[in-house]
Amino acid sequence: MDPVVVLVISLSCILLLSLWRQRSGKGRLPPGPMPLPILGNILQIDAKNISKSLTNLSKAYGPVFTVYLGTRPTVVLHGYKAVKEALVDHGEVFSGRGSFPVSDRTRKGLGIIFSNGNRWKVMRRFSVMTLRNFGMGKRSIEDRIQEEARCLVQELRKTNSSPCDPTFLLGCAPCNVICSVIFHNRFDYKDQHFLYFMEKFNENVKILSSPWILICNSFPALIDYFPGSHKKLLKNVAYVKQYILEKVQEHQGSLDMDNPRDFIDCFLIKMNEEKGNQQTEFTTEALINIVTDLFGAGTETTSTTLRYGLLLLLKHPEVTAKVQEEIDRVIGRHRSPCMQDKSSMPYTEAVLHEIQRYIDLFPINLPHAVTCDIKFRNYLIPKGTTIITSLTSVLHDSKEFPNPEKFDPGHFLDESGKFKKSDYFMPFSTGKRICAGEGLASMELFLFLTTILQNFHLKSLVDPKDLDTTPVFNGFVSVPPAYQICFIPI
């Protein structure tokens, strides 16, 4: 027999034996489709719509099942009960961050989003406390958002009712809110360095949501040895980090230890306090990664939701009209919207919730990992196993939200028209790893959207019925299709 054939058969047998031992030995993993050697179940997953593939597999294997992305087992949790049981009831055990090789190459376990263990706890605690000190969730940050909303309205007026792509205008507003907290500065909407900085984040979201990244994460060797869009992503991240490093160096030159101006100053002061600690987590590299995470989480998520939200309002003018009627009745035309108005605007709040539910921004969430061996629903999941939680299966649950594929604010209204909360509403995930900026994002979405609708009628270039709201990417993030819109002053 040909030696090459013998080698291939031998390797295949070893791989199959290894997979069998993984599935039946120490880690009595949940059932799932039989993986192929090396490839695993990658051929059974549509890289353009991962969440849909997982939903189809759940019909055959139940709410808890195993897929192999390459040779690596990944446990999938599908449906509200399984997701809540893991992330809330067993929150500490499921609080690890799962493998995400493309990001691991750029962050090396630093920052907040992709860090683990004590490092994650230290960095998250410091960041949340510092952001709160600078107004997160308080009146002072509301003032900043209101000011930025007024700046956004001024920029939208400059379009003179002409068709425009709202991507960067809607990106500048939330980005400037983050800038004011991190850099103690906001930027002009025409600042070319600022726009280029934001363009890198926007581009990276699209790349991270592309099918190629699923393949790279499943077969990490491709990242180092093959060309592809991941190279552009790595280059963009390097640019962003260099930009942030320059800002850090500027802060170091003008730092007043007794009067911190922003997040960077607070981190630099903490670095100075820990100078003699050999085990300190407070380093310049850690600061750069945390600021990168804060911009990524605090800018693109909100701007993408706003962009997708305006597209849905163009598609459903009857919904837009009801929101504007509520704005006229509660706020009027002569003052800026404020958070106090929210409790008197149940329909608007229902629309904001429905936008987030419908667009399903993070279909499969960021990967989690178990921090120790755990018996979960009679299965034994070994420490370190990657966990995927399908947020789509929660946000689009047909029992909780009748006709989940339909955009309907009624999903969050009771029979009397009052706003109705739902435990299934978890666009920011849930449990220990819930997005630290959830409060800020909710405040921004309400204030930006109501301010826009207070000042403008929205006009589509095509018949609203012909608008396509299907995401162009549906991997890491659901990215809305490009569209043109006219902002007609009221």
TrEMBL record:
User: What keywords sit in the KW lines?
Assistant: Endoplasmic reticulum, Heme, Iron, Membrane, Metal-binding, Microsome, Monooxygenase, Oxidoreductase, Signal
What are the recorded GO MF terms, alphabetically?
Answer: heme binding; iron ion binding; oxidoreductase activity, acting on paired donors, with incorporation or reduction of molecular oxygen, reduced flavin or flavoprotein as one donor, and incorporation of one atom of oxygen
Localization: Endoplasmic reticulum membrane; Microsome membrane
Which top-level group of life is the source organism from? Eukaryota
Record-level GO BP terms: organic acid metabolic process; xenobiotic metabolic process
* SUPFAM superfamilies with a match to the protein in the record: Cytochrome P450 (SSF48264)
What InterPro entries does the record tag this protein with? Cyt_P450, Cyt_P450_CS, Cyt_P450_E_grp-I, Cyt_P450_sf, Cytochrome_P450_fam2
Bilayer disposition of the protein: Peripheral membrane protein
Signal sequence interval, chain numbering: 1-27
Cellular component per GO? endoplasmic reticulum membrane
Q: What class of enzyme is it?
A: oxidoreductase
Cofactors named for this entry = heme
Positions of heme binding: C435
Q: What is its main location?
A: endoplasmic reticulum
According to its UniProt record, the EC number is 1.14.14.1
Family as reported in the entry's similarity comment: Belongs to the cytochrome P450 family.
Record protein name field: unspecific monooxygenase
Species annotation: Spermophilus dauricus (Daurian ground squirrel)
